[in-house]
Design a protein that fits this description.
single chain
Length: 219
């Protein structure tokens, strides 16, 4: 009996060790690009450091892309949200390499992602969305948001209209900005093959170089 018990304990220990090793192997090297002494997201019993990094990387991308001459966050949010809701964002040009790395880190949180009927990949039952709902500054928007989260009815079909009207607030409301970043930015990466986009660009560049090399010659 003691021998059986010892074998069971040994088996469990080996299984746990394998799981821990597998989890370590899945982790990727990640350097925070936007370390901040200020805690922009504060959620009880939840480490928000990666979510904060994700939101800041997202903001940096949209500002550089939509207002390259001078950073105007309110305008960048307005254009991005409008295009995202209309499925008109060119993510292959918008997304930085750092945001792609952030996405790989976010994917390690299996609770954060799910296949929804409307095509969304975000699991709104994740604790981060409860925290966002408790901290959105605009009261009417917060009430609508929480009602949709509580009834498991969150979708851009239900929430997109109000969200579009509050884009000016996103530059100052980092919780609302985090929601936008997760749902309308990182959540869309699942449907994009960035490697394919890079290959196409390289092929186009090579073709152009060959064409330029023959320009001006008579054949």
């Amino acid at each position: 009996m003691k021998l059986k018990l010892a074998l069971i304990v040994l088996t469990l220990c080996l299984f746990n060790c394998k799981q821990e090793t597998a989890q370590k192997q899945e982790q990727i090297n990640f350097d925070f690009k936007y370390p901040s002494a200020q805690k922009l997201l504060d959620c009880d019993n939840l480490d928000t450091s990666l979510f904060q990094e994700a939101m800041q990387s997202f903001e940096n991308d949209i500002v550089k892309f939509y207002t390259p001459d001078q950073p105007v966050y309110s305008r960048a949010y307005s254009i991005f949200v409008g295009q995202a809701l209309g499925n008109k964002v060119d993510y292959s040009k918008l997304v930085s390499e750092h945001s792609k790395t952030v996405f790989e880190a976010l994917k390690q949180d299996k609770r954060l992602w799910i296949d929804n009927a409307d095509g969304s990949k975000v699991n709104f039952q994740h604790p981060i969305f409860k925290c966002i709902g408790a901290n959105i500054k605009d009261e009417p928007l917060r009430k609508t948001y929480n009602a949709l989260i509580d009834t498991n009815s969150m979708s851009m079909r239900m929430f997109g209209g109000q969200l579009r009207r509050k884009t000016f607030d996103m530059k100052d409301d980092k919780y609302l900005a985090t929601f936008v970043a997760l749902e309308l930015f990182y959540g869309k990466f699942f449907d994009i093959d960035f490697n394919a986009e890079t290959s196409t660009e390289n092929e186009a560049s090579t073709t152009l170089e060959k064409h330029d090399a023959h320009d001006g010659h008579n054949h």
